[in-house]
Every structure is written in structure tokens, then in C-alpha cells.
Amino acid sequence: MRVKYRATTALVVGGLVATAALTGCSGGDSSASDTSSQTLTVWVDPNRAEELKDIVAQFEADKGINVKLVQKEYGDTMKEDFIKQAPTGKGPDVIVGGSDWLGLFVQNGVVAPLELGDTADEYSDVAIRAMSYEGTTYGLPVSVENIALVRNSALADSTPATWDELIAAGQAVVASGAAQYPVLVPSGPESDPYHLYPLQTSYGAPLFGTNPDGSYNPDDLLIGNPGGEEFAEKLVEWGQEGVLNTNITNEIARDEFAAGKSPYMLSGPWNLPAFKDGGIDYAIEPIPQAGTEAGTPFVGVQGFFVSAKSDNALAANEFVVNYLGTEDVQLALYKAGGRPPAMTSAFEIASAEDPDVGAYGEVALAGVPMPAIPEMGAVWNYWGATEAALVNNTAGDPATAWQTMADRIAADIAK
């Protein structure tokens, strides 16, 4: 790839404004003539390492600063190693990670605010919000990921406007003998609030309210809204009708849809390879609204963070903002991972190349960031267990069960 990068901009680090001449910013050395001893360490997953080599070479040539790419398997171990090592000075200067890691990173004081300046306008709003915590941006967004409705075009030539109409259409296909399930929604023994969230929000019961800056407000718990009780009643109804089934895990849903056994499925892009292998002719579309409002799926974002303990803060910010934050790099990483780019211009190009990426990315624009706030630890268990009990009709009165769940979540958050 031909590497392009931004013109050097002023950066704000530690409350001071400095131009990123990037001289003498390591280990307290103020010499303006020696940058050769500086090295940026970047933790990156193997999937992206190859795509970063050109931009690393360009940065090294331009700035005289070495960049060491350390490949790490993406996941909890990588996240936990960073939290443990950063305070000791042994961690990386830059790390790739997910927006759902941000709350822990900020809590542990291991990531620094990232000054995107005017370049923030080049990214989708949901991507910037996902990489921000309490109104401060900490990460450079690279890609977005979310669920949408996937339709088997051989079994259904269109998608109804509402969820109830979709269920009826799917049931008609099942009655004809052409399918086994009216719609497949991944679940499991503890249900799956992630996949059900667009339906829940359609009833006016999101998890949390938001602050003026768009960040989540854990003190404004909205899941117990009256709409949540209506949603709870629908979970019982859908469970009795066989629309929802806690025995249908993501893997089962994926395989059954790939086998042509349902006209519709709620799915993320991670299942598309199986659908293609199964020879399914599919379309990716927004999830029809179940209640009176448009549903909002969760959106996860991946990107790059700068360590708060980096001895090379200016260099790390320059590398992330002005070298990784370019259309060329966003496109290269999209080709490596297959997820919609967070940068708007790169997303438009990727959409023209791959309709699947465009379709998922369009749904993401109407979604909401997956909450990264610590209070989510008080949410998942009660939420999933209650939904599963409602689907299985073992929760008793739906409204009471839902309100009990909301009260328990509120009590745990208040501790």
C-alpha cells in the first residue's frame, strides 16, 4: 500500500500544548538532535500486524523513531497483561483494543486521553462515543461491529416493517414446510441480552440514560421503564410461540441458518463465512422495530490506545493520530479484519467494494456504543437470567419479574 499520513499537528499531552517535533520526548532527554534511541512498542494482534508494517516504516523514516510491533493474541489475556504491566513501565506505548475494555483501562489509570482535535469529525459519531469515557476520548477508532437482520432471500423476498409482522411471515414459511424456524435469535441457558437489545430498546427501555456529552449515566437506570415491562410480556409470548428458545445457542443458530432452515436471523458479520459456505443467498438489513421506537443494537468498536505510562507520549500520540488515523490505514485494517471502518471516508470506499460491510455499517450508524462503564458488572447476570426465565415462562408475573431485576441492578450499582 502507498502510505499517506497527516501533516503534523499540535498535540496536547499532560495538559501542555506542544508541536509534535518528537525530539527529546523519551526518558526526560531534552536533546533535539537524537531520536534514534527512542522506540515505540505497539501491541497488536496477528491479524493486523502485517497491515501496519508499511505505516511503521514510514513513521520510522519520517521521525527517526523505532517502532516495535509485538504480536499478541487479541482477548482478555492481552487486556489483563496491559493493565498489569503498564504501571511497571514494562507495557507497550500503544495497544490495540476494544471499546468494551475502556472502562477498566480508565479505572486502572493505564490509558491517556487522545487529542484528535478536528480529526474527530472524520469518524462516525457512534465510534467516537464508544472510544470516549465520561466525555473524554481515549482511543482512535478503527472498526465497528454489530448485529443486523440477515434474510435468506430464497425463503423470503422482503423484510416486514415490524417484528410481529416478521414473525408472522416466518411462521408462514414454516407452515409451508420450507423452513423449521420463523426466525433465529441466538440465545442460551442464560439468554442473550446482546442480541435481544434492539427489541428491548424498541419498547423504550434502554439500559441507561445519557449525559449531555453522550456518555452513559449509571445513575439514570432506564431498564425498569414501563416499556421494559411490556417487553418482558413479549418475551413470554415469543417463548411460548417458539420464536425464542434458550436452547438455540449462537453456534446452533448459525448452523441452522446456514442449512437453510429459517428465513431470518439476528446475526453479526462473524457468521457470514458459514452462510457463504452453506450457499445461502442473503441480504443484510436493519432489525424491524418491535415496539413504538426504532431499536438500537449495541455497537462495539476496536481501535488504538496510548498508555498513560508511556515515556514517549508525544511520539505515541503522533503515531496513533496522524499515522494510524488515515484513510489508507483504515482501509488496510478493514481488508485484514473485514469490519466496517470507523472513518467515514474509508467506510464509503469499503461499502462500494463490499455490500456486506456497507450494510452492517449502515445499521451501526443507528446503534449505540456497548457500555464500557464499570456498572455493567451489576447488569449482565440479572439481565440474562431474568430474560431466560421469561422466555421459559418460569419467572412468574412478567412485569414483576422485570421490575425485580431492575431493582436488583439499581441496588448493586448503588453499593
TrEMBL record:
Q: What is the lineage of its organism?
A: Bacteria, Bacillati, Actinomycetota, Actinomycetes, Micrococcales
Q: Which Gene3D superfamilies does the entry mention?
A: Periplasmic binding protein-like II
**Record's family?**
Belongs to the bacterial solute-binding protein 1 family.
From the Swiss-Prot or TrEMBL record, give the protein name.
Maltose ABC transporter substrate-binding protein
Q: Which InterPro entries match?
A: Maltose/Cyclodextrin-bd, SBP
Arranged from A to Z, the UniProt key words for this protein are: Signal, Sugar transport, Transport
Species per Swiss-Prot/TrEMBL record: Microbacterium helvum
Whether Transport counts among this entry's keywords is yes
Record has Coiled coil as a keyword: no
Q: What residue range is the signal peptide?
A: 1-20
Name the Pfam families on file. SBP_bac_8 (PF13416)
